[in-house]
Amino acid sequence: MKADFEDATGKELTSPDQLLLNGAVYRATPGAQPAVLDKCGEHRCVRLFPKVKNGPWIDARSFVIDLSARKVAKLDIG
What we know:
It is built from one helix and four strands. It is mainly beta. The protein has one domain. The protein has a four-stranded antiparallel sheet. A hairpin with a 4-residue loop joins strand 3 and strand 4. The longest helix has 8 residues, at 2-9.
């Protein structure tokens, strides 16, 4: 995310205040994600959609954060 921010702005990402964040609940679909995400639905999982303030979206849609297990996994979006 830091590299994408720098590519979009020419500046270093140093604070969450530089971003606007939207999130969505992620629920597991059996067989459709890495096994580490199988408990999403039982665990609290979220996908974040970050945006540079007054700028472009940063593509983070392939990442899912399992807040319960404190792990991040990458979806195979293809």
